[in-house]
Every structure is written in C-alpha cells, then in structure tokens.
Write a structure and sequence with these properties.
WD repeat; repeat; CTLH_C; CTLH domain-containing protein; Topless_Znf
Length: 1125
C-alpha cells in the first residue's frame, strides 16, 4: 500500500475512533502513525501539566535533536517543568529534571545549563532578573505554549502534519455500507429484505427457505435469556413496622422485598414476558413499507441511485439492504396510520452558540423552551415568535458561601456545564443542575422575568440530574450526583429534607413519582443499578440491574400510567423498555436502537408515543408496539445521540443539532398552533404598534389533562394556563372566552413607572471610608461580593463584607456595613498622576478574570497591582500618551488592550513587556474597550462618538460606525463613549452622555436607543444588571433610572432625595455605577463627593418597580417614542 493510501486510511480510522469517543486510542494512533499532530490535544496536555504525555506525544513526530526548532521546543518544555518543580520547592524533582532532561542541552549551550543549575540556590527563582516577571503556573504555561506553538508551526518537520483533511462525516461507515451493498448486488439468490449481520465474512444470500445463521446470529441466540422477571429484592429485607401503613398500597415488588441474595442479570434484554420479543431481537426485519430506503449514514447516497454492476437487473438493484451499523425492524400496517401525528416538520431553528445538553418545554406556556448548554448557558426561547426571552451564563451567585472545594475548582476554570434544566410542575420555578456542585433555582414571573431564587451547594462534584415533585403538598427538588448520593430539598427555602445513600457508583438519574398515594423515587447509576426509595431512612427498597447494565433514565408517560426506561451500556448496546411497575418486570423491549451509540441515548414520552435520539436520527415508537413506527433526520445535521424533548401535548418536539443549535419540529396540530401564535402576534402589532405577543399558551383540542398520578420528575406539564391558542386561530382566555387585543392596550393606562423619592422607599448603605474625599471615577464589584473603587486622586478603595451573625454568608448587603480593607502591611494602591493633567486625565482600571491582578492608570504610568498584597508588581508605559481605557484579554491575562489618549489602541504583553501591535482608527482618545470571545473580536469606542470592531485574528477592522446623535441634542466636546457587553457577548450596551443604545456587535447595528428628557441632565454612567434584564443608568441631576433591557422602558426612577444627603452648598451626583455579580436588584453608585453607596429595593419588594404590562405576561416593545422619557 502506498504512503498516500496508508495516510488516508489512518485519517479514516481517526475520524471513526473520534466519533466513537475512543479518545486515548485516537491520540495513540496520531502519535504512532505520525501523520497528524493534534495541536488542540497538545495544548490540553501542556495546560494540565501532563509533561510525560507532552513529551511522549511530541516524540512521535520529532526527536529533540532533529533540528534547531525541535531542540528549542523540547528545551522550553523541560525548562518549564524544571521551574514548576522549583516553584513547589520540590528540589529533589528539580535535580532529577536537571540531570535527566536538561543536561543534554549543555553540549550546545553550557552557559544556560549553569544558569539553570544556579537557580537551585535561590529561595525563589524569580529573584533571578531574567525570571522576575515569571507569573504563576497557569500564566507561565500559557506563555510557554504560545512560544512553542510558533516553533512547531515554523518547524519543517510539522509542515504537512498540522492540517486535518476535509472530508465528509462518518466516511468510513459510508465506505463499508457501499462495500456491503456491492456484495449484495453480486448475490446469486438476492433476498427482498437481506440483513447483513457481520463484516467478518463476504455477504451472500442463501437459497430461498434455507436458514443458515451466521456465527454472530448463533452467538446472539446463545446469549438471549429465557423470559422472566426481576425478583422483588430489597437491600433491607421486609419493611419495618414503621412503613407497614403503606404496604397495602405499594407495588408488590416494593412492598414484599426478598431477603434472598440479589440475582445477577445478564447483559442482554431481560425480563421478557413474551417469546415474540426475544425472537424479534434474534432476527430483525427491514422497513418493508419503504423499499426505496437504504439505512446508511446521513451522507451516504442511496444504493439504488448508484451505477450497478453489469448484468444486475433493476429489480435486484432496487432491493434495500440493511447495512452497518444497524438494521431496523419493520412497520406494522396499523402503525402507519399513526405516523401523521408525529412531529416531523421543522418549524423553527435556533442558534444556541454552544452544545445543547438539556431542554424542557414550559408545562403551561407550551411554546416556551428552556435550554441548557455545555458551557453553562441557560436560555428561554419563545418558539412562536422565535425570540430569545432570557439568557444567563454560568455564574456563582454567592462565591463566599460555596465550599472550599468548589472555590478551588473555579479558580482553575470558572466554567461549568449544564447537566439538566427543568420546569416545576406549575411552571413557576425553573431548576438547573451544573457539573460543579451547584443547583440553581429561578422563579418565573411571566415573559422574560426570571429571578434568582436559590443557590444550593448540592453535591461534591458533578450534579447529574434534577427533578421537581410534590411531597405532602410541599414543592421539593430531588438531585443526584457524582458523590453517589440522592438529596431532597425544599424548593422554597432550600432546606435539605432527605439524603439517600446506597449506590456504589455515581448516580446518573432520579425520577420521583407518586402512585396510589405513595411517593417514591427511582434512581439509576452509571454501573446500571436501579434503586427505589421511600421518603424514610430505611435505605433502598428495590435494588436490581438495568437491562444490559446500561446507564439509563426512567420516565412515566405523561398521563402517569406507564413506566419506561432508556439507556446505553458500556459496550454500546442501547435499550428502550417498558416496565410493569406493579410486578417489577420488563414488559416490552423495543426494537430499532443502534448497537453502537455515541454517548448515552436520550428519550422522551407523550401519552402514547416514545421518541429517542439515536444514530443521527429521531426515532418514534407507539407504546403498544415494539417495532419502530417511523424515523426522521430533521433535514440532517443531527449528532449521533441528539437531545430530544416533547412539549406536554406532544405536538412540538425539540431536538439538538451538530451546529450548537436546536430544531423544533411539529405535527399538523402543532403547525396550526404555531401559525395561530404568528397571527395573534401580527394582529397585536397592527393594533398596538409594536406590542409583541409572547409566551402564548399552546393547546390542542382533544389533548388530555394530566392525571393525578402523572410524574413530576419530568415536569408534569400541568394545565394552569392563563391564555390559550385554539386550532381555529382564536386567542382565548379561560375567564372571558375570547381575548381582545385592544384590551391589552388598556393595561398601559393603569400601569405606572415606579418612583422612589423618599429614603423609606429603598434600602441604602454608605460604605465606611477613611480617605480624603475625591470623586469616584470607576467602580466595580468583585465576584466575591466586594466593591473596588478608583478615585480622581488615583487612590483605590476596597470594601469586603465579613461573615458574622448578622451576615452569615458574608455577602454584600445594605444590612451590615463592610470593612474598609487593607492588607496587614498597611500599604495602599495608588496610581502615578501627572499634576498638570489632574482634572483632564481619564482614570481607568481593569480586574483580571481570576481577580488576582489589577491594572490601573490615572494619567501617568500604568501600574499592575497584586490584589492580595496591594504591591505594585510592575509599572509600564509612561505618558504621554496616557492610557484612557484598559481591558484584560479574557483568554490570556498576560495580554492587555490599552486605549490611549492619542487615539490608538495598543495590545501589550505584560510578560514580555512589549507592545505586540498598535491599532489606529479613532480620531480622538479611546474611551471604551470590550472583548467578545464568542465573536472573537475587540470592540472599541472613542471620544469621537465612533464604534469599531477589530478581529482578534490579525487585528483587522471588521466594522465601524458613528453614534446616531438624538435630534436636538448637542453633546459635550470629547464626551466619553463607553461600551459593555451583555452576557451573550453578542449585544453591546453603548453609554454616551446623550443616550443609551443596544448594538448587535458583529455588524454594529443599532437595535434600541433610549434618550433621556433634557431636564434630567446628562448620563454619567450605566451598566447591565447581573441577569442582563435591566440597565442601571445614573445622571448628573442625581437620579438613577432602572430600564428594561428588552424594551428600553422605565421600570423605576430613583430621585436624589431618596438616597443622597441634602447639602445646599455642594452638588453631589452619582459618577459611576456597578451591578452586583449575582443579585440582580442590588447595585452600587460612586459619588462625586467620594462616597460609595449600595442600593437595594425595600424588604417588602422583590425588585425595582414592575415590568411594563404586555400581552400574555411578557414584556412589551415600546410604542413609537415610548423610550423618550
């Protein structure tokens, strides 16, 4: 075989192994073949400090003395490894690295080797002048990695090994399918519905009526168990007297647990109650009702469309062939009549921005879709209007209250994945389970109004699943996690009610349920163990193996009468089964799931249908028939195991896509309801001039209501619905029978913006201060809850709330004053100031992502401070020109973007002390900078009222625009224009003294503009609330406005008399504003007299003012001119 052919075959294998998630094997093949250097994997190893793997992987492509580039690469890696050992004071390891790994370089440069040896004599190697700027381990690794990557890219050894070739997905599968199909063309006795079982032998159809099972068939038949049931076994023997009162109502398999040892269940489908199910697993038949379909991968061309071998008839050529990886069972005639009810038409596409991990439709407003992603984002989509109602990135609300373990993990990486999102049964709460310890609970108040409710440190490590349920009329949350426990919490107070322990492996899923007046919980773990628990301390009442020891989830049908489970074993076998929940036996095993599923297959239920995401498709079953009803690829683009989720009535189906998106599919009823929502929205817009109908409740005629036994594990999808859209398009309410759109306009007559003009209308706290008064020019909250301010005199002030009896969590509050904090050394952080430019200078600062460093300037040199010791680590860039805005690159704390007084932007590397590039474009000084890692851009603003977008790849200008000046308004000369990204890092808040505006950053398109009335004075500052639902804006007249983000309408206005001291001699106003990082209704203002105040709504109120009224409970877009207040 030629080198080219071998290379291409290796790439096919790499693609297949990667699809199947054989990660270790992928990288081993990369190293051993030497055809592809995986830079991403190399970066991960370096970042994690896995130095043995770094060198082992690298050695598959180059030896250390192959050329000067290779020698430099190996030297930098070994030097970093040596310095880290010194930093840990592990001198023994350092000496070992010096002797074994670095001594070989002495032949080429003996001086460097001697210098490295001398570092052993220093207490801190940073005492060496050349290493004085060496940052902490993470920074040092990042810098070293950047240098090594450049060396690799310039090394001729790697010239053709860094680019992965472009070819179709699942290419190896497609080639195998083509091969098997070709073999069948050559059969002498081709069958109508051949079933290729193995790749180990050439395919050949035997003579008619002759059964000659292949070796695989024979092995499978030997493994199939006899029909039987799970023994009713419990780990604690018969129930104790305390539980006897429940025994009569319990299912027999829970009420009469056996004391006999547990019987091990085989890996195959088990507990079959009818022989036909077992036989259906032995011999799978094709979809006979669709003879033109060829079940290959999504990008494989159908067999009958390809050119055929000479002499093969059209009849033979058109025979469908069931090929690798799976074959599908056939339809039955009566099932095809039901296929019209399946949601298979794509009606909406949403771009989520990151991989979708979990979804849930609102139980009442069934067009609201809740989504959680792999980077911790949660989003609420309105399917009918295709609007994003709510978006929130992962953030700890109260870091001080978290465990030390969680805090340490967040220092390493302030990210977490969403494992589960779910609505409560009535839709008033929403829960999120994260991959790091935490459960978040939000309260939902209609429209886009979601508020932080509870932050629970639920488990050690991964929180794998979450469910709501009612226990004695009390709303509870059940969680499970990597720590092998199940916990039950009060959903209102967050109090822990129960802890269940007994699993020997991490718990994968929980499903609370109530049947015949008995409440219990099913739980499953990653080793395939199923347990059932009553709400007591007597341990699991049921303990047995899942089919195939699969990692699975359980769910009841939406009417609460039938129990199902679905999952995938460690061997890649997937199982979808129905249980007899009275006897504890498997009732049905459904056919059609693939033998090799990437990940764990996901499923959902309606009243009579099952759906699963498998083999890049959506597959449907009727509950009463084990054969596959139908399937759909939703137009393509689905992952191997997509997430799937029905709405309550089963007329809408959400499915995740490969491109970090979501497709929503509908059946005929769903399409009619979807159009009804659009029509109602259009009617409302014609009458209300922009009033947007959102959150309408979708209801189909004939859909049954939830029975009392319906599960709350997957939201009960209850029928508490304030408004419905019927199939004929009428908008109706239960109270009136018909919704009049004009009535919605009447609501504006009765709604009034909240006004706060007395101290009793809010809670405020002026922070203690021992420094001389000087205007606050910059203000920020730290994630830990402290507040940092910069004054016009160049001094920094830091306040921290301490834990005490009045403030147990030590969080920022107006109830208890904080400590004006300084380190024990008593030193302060003060910027260099040029007296000649004192009043005219633009002060600025930026806090690093891990909050360990502060970079700050007040017209003079730029200073880098250590936030723990307050020591100035380094000063650089003396003026002129002076720095006027600073921003850390969120992906690399060593890179700082500096806006300058001379209108340039300089990209500065702190580690090397060099300016990497100078960007020119503005005409006046730069007054704002903001990075977006999502868009991979830097946005800048200037005193010239100009906005510009710069690509981080090459720093080229992508877009530019000037602010639209409001009619009749004249701004001050050289007014500051500041910018702040929303959490989605796509939308941008622009702050100018004459206006606030929201821009779509990539194209700098103005979406909303808000102009204050002239009597209110100029805007001094503004910022988003932490949930990005509101904007806090401050004014020179001393007032503060709280404005809704989506509609740019006033929610509340705070007048100076409510919070500022009355002083006729001096005019005091808020010059800076900052929002609390986790409390959406708390913010702080920095005053012109040097004071800092924290403001909160009164205890009797949960938020500032109220949302403007809208149709359907959601926010309204402003009628023309409504934003000009």
């Amino acid at each position: 075989m030629s080198v080219t052919a071998r290379r291409e075959l290796v790439f096919l294998l790499l693609q297949y192994l990667d699809d199947e998630e054989y990660k270790e094997t992928v990288h081993k093949l990369e190293r051993e073949s030497g055809f592809f250097f995986n830079m991403k994997y190399f970066e991960e190893c370096v970042t994690n400090g896995d130095w043995d793997e770094v060198e082992s992987y690298l050695s598959g492509f180059s030896k250390f003395d192959e050329n000067r580039h290779s020698m430099k690469i190996f030297f930098e890696i070994r030097k970093q490894r040596y310095l880290e050992a010194l930093d840990r004071h592990d001198h023994a390891k350092a000496v070992e690295i010096l002797q074994k790994h670095l001594k070989g370089f002495s032949r080429h440069n003996e001086g460097i080797f001697k210098e490295l040896t001398m570092l052993l004599t220093l207490e801190n190697f940073r005492e060496n002048d050349q290493l004085s700027k060496q940052g902490d381990t993470n920074f040092a690794r990042a810098n070293m990695l950047a240098e090594v990557k450049q060396l690799i890219e310039s090394n001729p050894v790697f010239c053709d090994k860094l680019q992965y070739p472009s070819f179709k997905k699942s290419r190896l599968r497609t080639l195998i399918n083509q091969s098997l199909s070709w073999q069948h063309h050559l059969c002498q006795n081709p069958k109508q519905a051949p079933d290729v079982k193995t790749l180990f032998y050439d395919h050949s159809c035997g003579p008619p009526n002759v059964f000659d099972p292949s070796p695989v068939n024979k092995a499978l038949m030997r493994l199939l168990p006899k029909a039987g049931v799970f023994p009713p076994i419990g780990s604690h023997g018969p129930f104790q007297p305390a539980a006897a009162q429940h025994t009569a109502s319990l299912p027999r398999w829970m009420a009469n647990p056996s004391s006999m040892p547990h019987q091990t269940v085989t890996a195959g489908p088990i507990g079959l109650t009818a022989p036909n199910n077992a036989s259906s697993l032995r011999k799978r038949t094709p979809l006979i009702n669709n003879p033109a379909m060829d079940y290959q991968t999504a990008d494989a061309e159908p067999v009958f469309k390809r050119s055929r071998a000479s002499g093969v008839s059209d009849e033979v050529n058109n025979i469908p062939v069931n090929v690798f990886p799976i074959s599908f069972p056939g339809h039955s005639a009566h099932m095809l009549d039901s296929s019209k009810d399946l949601p298979k038409i794509v009606i909406a596409n949403f771009s989520q921005g990151s991989a979708v991990k979990s979804m849930d439709f609102h139980p009442g407003q069934q067009s609201l879709l809740l989504v959680g992603t792999s980077i911790g984002d949660i989003t609420v989509w309105e399917v009918g209007s295709k609007h994003r109602l709510f978006s929130q990135s992962f953030r700890i609300w109260d870091l001080a209250a978290c465990s030390a373990t969680l805090q340490e993990s967040l220092v390493i990486a302030y990210t977490a994945s969403v494992n589960r999102v779910i609505w409560s049964p009535d839709g008033s709460f929403m829960g999120v389970a994260y991959s790091k310890h935490i459960v978040h609970v939000y309260s939902y108040h209609g429209g886009d109004d979601l508020r932080n409710h509870l932050e629970i440190s639920a488990h050690v490590g991964n929180v794998t699943d979450l469910a709501f349920s009612h226990l004695n009329k009390q709303l509870c949350i059940t969680s499970c996690g990597e720590d092998k426990s199940i916990k039950v919490w009060d959903a209102v107070t967050g109090k822990k009610l129960y802890t269940f322990e007994g699993h020997e492996a991490p718990v994968y899923s929980v499903y609370p349920h109530r049947k015949e007046q008995i409440s219990f919980i099913f739980s499953t773990d990653v080793d395939g163990k199923i347990k059932a628990w009553l709400y007591d301390d007597m341990g699991p009442r049921v303990n047995f193996d899942a089919p195939g020891r699969s990692c699975m989830k359980m769910a009841y049908s939406t009417d609460g009468t039938r129990l199902f489970s679905c999952g995938t074993s460690k061997e890649g076998e997937s199982y979808l089964v129905e249980w007899n929940d009275t006897e504890g036996e498997v009732k049905r095993v459904y056919n059609g799931l693939g033998n090799r599923t990437v990940g764990i297959v996901q499923f959902d239920t309606t009243k009579r249908l099952l759906v699963a995401g498998d083999d890049f498709r959506i597959k449907f079953w009727e509950m009463d028939n084990v054969d596959l009803l139908d399937f759909s690829d939703a137009g393509g683009g689905l992952p191997a195991s997509p997430c799937v989720r029905f709405n309550k009535d089963g007329i809408l189906l959400a499915v995740s896509t490969n491109e970090n998106g979501i497709k929503v599919l509908a059946n005929a009823n769903g399409i009619r309801c979807f159009h009804s929502i659009e029509n109602c929205a259009n009617d409302a817009s014609r009458i209300a001039s922009g009033t947007l109908v959102k959150g309408l409740v979708v209801r189909t005629s004939g859909a049954s209501s939830s029975s009392p036994g319906a599960s709350s594990g997957i939201a009960d999808r209850s029928e508490a619905m304030p408004m419905v859209v019927s199939l004929n398009g009428d908008c109706r309410s239960f109270a009136e029978g018909k919704l009049r759109v004009a009535d919605q306009l009447e609501k504006f007559k009765f709604w009034k913006m909240g006004e706060v003009n007395e101290p009793s209308h809010l809670r405020s706290l002026r922070l203690p201060d021992s420094l001389l008064p000087s205007r606050i020019v910059r203000l920020i909250y730290a994630n830990s809850g402290g507040i940092l301010a910069l004054t016009l005199s160049g001094e920094h002030k830091l306040w921290k709330w301490q834990k005490n009896e009045q403030n147990v969590l030590g969080k920022a509050t107006t109830i208890v004053p904080p400590e004006f904090w300084k380190p024990q050394s008593g030193i302060s952080m003060t910027n260099d100031i040029l007296e000649t430019h004192h009043e005219d200078s633009v002060a600025c600062f930026a806090l690093s992502k891990n909050e360990a460093y502060l970079v700050s300037a007040s017209g003079g040199e730029i200073s880098l401070f250590n936030m723990i010791t307050f020591k100035r680590m380094v000063s650089f860039k003396p003026s002129p020109p002076a720095a006027t805005f600073l921003a850390f690159n969120p992906q690399d704390n060593n890179i700082i973007a500096m806006g300058m007084e001379d209108s340039t932007i300089q990209i500065y590397n702190v580690n090397t002390g060099e300016v990497k590039i100078t960007i020119q474009g503005h005409c006046e000084r730069v007054t704002g900078l903001a990075f977006s890692t999502i868009l991979n851009v830097l946005v800048s603003s200037g005193a010239d009222s100009q906005l510009m977008v710069w690509s981080l790849d090459g720093w080229k200008k992508q877009a530019g625009t000037f602010l639209k000046n409001p009619a009749g308004r004249v701004s001050k000369p050289l007014s500051q224009t500041r910018i702040k990204f929303q959490k989605d890092e796509i939308h941008l808040l622009v702050i100018h003294d004459t206006q606030l505006a929201i821009y779509e950053a990539s194209k700098l398109k103005c979406i909303e503009q808000w102009v204050p009335r002239e009597s209110g004075g100029v805007i001094t500052d503004a910022t988003f609330s932490c949930d990005c639902q509101s904007v806090y804006a401050t004014f020179e007249d001393g007032s503060v406005s709280i404005i809704t983000t989506r509609t740019f309408q006033h929610r509340c206005r705070i007048y100076p008399a409510a919070y500022l001291p009355c002083s006729p001699s001096t005019r005091v106003y808020p010059a800076a504003v900052a929002a609390h990082p986790s409390e959406p209704n708390q913010f702080a203002v920095g005053l012109s007299d040097g004071g800092v105040l924290v403001l909160e709504p009164p205890e009797s109120e949960e938020q500032w003012g109220s949302m403007p009224p809208v149709d359907g409970g959601g926010p309204s877009t402003s009628p023309p001119g409504a934003g000009l207040v």
